[in-house]
Amino acid sequence: MPEAPFSRGAQHPPTAAPFATAAGPSGLLTSLAPLLAEWLPRQRWFAGKGRPVTGFALVCVTELLPWRADGGTPGLLHLLVRAQQPEPPGHRHGSGCGHRRGAAASDCYQLLLGARRTLPPPLAPALIGRPRGGPLDGQTVYEALFDPRLTTLLLERLRMPGRLGPLRFVREPSSTIPPVLPPRLMTAEQSNSSVVYGDTFILKLFRRVSPGTNPDLELPRALARTGCTRVPAPAAWFEAEPPAEGAGPRPEPFTLGVLQPFLAGSRDGWQLALDTLAARGDFTGAARALGHATAEVHLAMARGLPTSVLRRPQIEHLAAAMSERLDSAAAAVPALQPYRTALHGAYEDLAALGRAGRTWTAQRIHGDLHLGQALLTGSEGGGGRWSLIDFEGEPSRPLAERRRPQPPVRDIAGMLRSFDYAAAVGCHEHPQEWAGRTRAAYCAGYADASGTDPRDEPELLRAHETDKAVYEVLYEARHRPDWLSVPMTAIRRLAGLRT
Ligand SMILES: Nc1ncnc2c1ncn2[C@@H]1O[C@H](COP(=O)(O)OP(=O)(O)O)[C@@H](O)[C@H]1O
Ligand SMILES: O=P(O)(O)O[C@H]1O[C@H](CO)[C@@H](O[C@H]2O[C@H](CO)[C@@H](O)[C@H](O)[C@H]2O)[C@H](O)[C@H]1O
């Protein structure tokens, strides 16, 4: 792929004036490639772990801040690059984020690179390397999100929207973003990267990106329009409109980052559950309130976005997709093999209900709901309030699939799986009992607010729980092999075997 145009930005925060564009610098990618090949696979958010990176292709590059050769000021480069890798073993269908050619795949990543002559000591952990040749020769290149000067500039871009080369910065007209908010990079384990500004806003930068609006922008905006206050409403965002690749059509814009209010002092449900377990406390009140909050968000999504009815063909298709995911996961994680037949049974039961004339409503859902996606502000005993975040869906699923209406029980199954995880990781002496009590409270809270008790549809719930546990097996095998036993215990239970 030829190097894409290199867009030069203004040195100061954007104005409404158009930005100048210069021709692309030759040798940029060539000089960065060996450094990125070493650095990228080490990042928590790199999705292609375990497979070599065989090359890079530039999708677009934008100079957000020009660097000075004498090292006077840092520079900031925004890149979208495709990392070329062989397909993973047992791969059936793509992530939807990348291109595929033969047995090769290439996911597109968003990179923000700082460039300075020398790195001050506090930025040492951000080092990527020193390119040889190319326009960055003589500079030190680093992860820009560690540098408060550069993350401040990003906020400025969002505060005063406009275009810069392929990038478009948008602010919700009703939102006010103050000019000076000290930034700090979040250090939590994440699938993306987030910067908190003065405890007022949080900017999430998507790392693996694909054409089309990210549901983590689309759904919170739609929920805000319905008046639902359970989800922080986007205040600003930015996207890229990269040039067409080859003779193909111009891709849809890629959502790159979303700024939303920061829920200061909040605690996430995962930490809260573990703390409660450690203190041998009761989590059922919190779970009930969380079920209530989940139902409120589901009702708002059903009001504000299209819904559909799942009849026999759609139910059979849903069951077949689950079966396919199971086969694909079992090819990648052999530990699943002994349980395949029994697990397929859950999907067959679902398909049988479809054949018998059962129908369900599908709607937009969260898509990857677990305790870590629920934030409690205030104390749960003293009138605390749950909010839900991170509507991106399961990161490894194709974007089109994540944006499709689905049965809301999919989210409920996700949260029920999370109670299982908490009981296992929190070392409860009777994990299944604790998880059972917590599940019952959550479902009861959901039923109170929605009038629908998920336990009344056992086949639907079991099929979704099984699908989620299979996803988790793959997720843990790739990201946290030490935790593989947690979803594997559930797999054995769901397959009807003793744990
Ligand atoms: N609006 C918010 N207010 C407070 N903390 C937040 C907010 N949004 C996200 N966080 C924190 O950032 C973490 C990562 O956010 P998340 O959207 O889940 O990113 P990722 O998709 O990278 O996992 C969350 O677990 C939470 O601790
Ligand atoms: O929060 P993300 O969008 O990055 O979601 C991914 O990572 C999650 C782990 O951080 C993973 O969740 C799994 O582990 C959780 C405990 O750490 C547990 O509460 C969840 O139930 C379990 O699924 C999630 O699956 C993955 O998509």
Automatic annotation (TrEMBL):
Belongs to the aminoglycoside phosphotransferase family. It catalyses: D-maltose + ATP = alpha-maltose 1-phosphate + ADP + H(+). Residues 1-22 are annotated as: Disordered. This is Maltokinase. Monomer. Residues 39-147 form the Maltokinase N-terminal cap domain. The lineage of its organism: Bacteria, Bacillati, Actinomycetota, Actinomycetes, Kitasatosporales. It comes from Streptomyces hygroscopicus. Its EC number is 2.7.1.175.
